[in-house]
């Protein structure tokens, strides 16, 4: 198997075939098509569809009497509990996906040569297990608030679309461990900010116990980010030859 860093196989750049590139540029100058484009009409159509489009989804009603009472109490205080529940449901879905991403990373690790300073199998498994614990924590929080933890919230749905490419990359046999660490690094950056936001919101809404639990999860997520960043940097430095 060739390394993606091997030089010589990539012919996507114009410099790989300068004569044909020259012909292409000459052909472009001879084209009767105008080079200036007015995007006003296209932007107007996009704006029209955006204003009239239905959302990804809506929040489900509380399934229990307890949940309905809690929801009603929050509304009396001038707060929208749906926003808080949406963010918890989003984090729940994200942590579920996170466990699957680290499962895919384990497969990639087993198929790759070990890199000095890179992850060990036990370290990847440790993060996987903590992601799963966070999933369980968020399920219990949803139940405590009288919400259904199996429902897909609008933000969870939107984030699932946004993160589809990460799972595709980790599951692709052609991707390298280094490329997968790049993708995991992006995920952990998002995850950290989201947990910090969730903990702050729980504080503001008076959910002190949840805020404390969320900050504990955030501390663990900070460790995850530190570890992934270290693996990635060490691996890249080793490939460059400066480790």
Contiguous uncertain segments of 5+ residues:
none
Total beta strand runs:
0
Order of helices and strands: HHHHHHHHH
Shape: flat
% residues in beta strands: under 5%
Question: How large is the radius of gyration?
Answer: 24 Å
Query: What is the CATH top level name of the domain at 91-240?
Result: Mainly Alpha
Question: In oligomeric terms, what are we looking at?
Answer: single chain
The fourth-level CATH homologous superfamily of the domain at 91-240 is Ferritin, core subunit, four-helix bundle
CATH topology (fold) name of the domain at 91-240: Ferritin
What is the arithmetic mean of pLDDT? 88
Largest sheet composition: none
Helix content: 55-70%
Break the fold down into its secondary structure elements and pairings.
Layout: H1 18-30, H2 40-52, H3 65-76, H4 81-110, H5 121-144, H6 154-162, H7 164-171, H8 177-204, H9 208-240
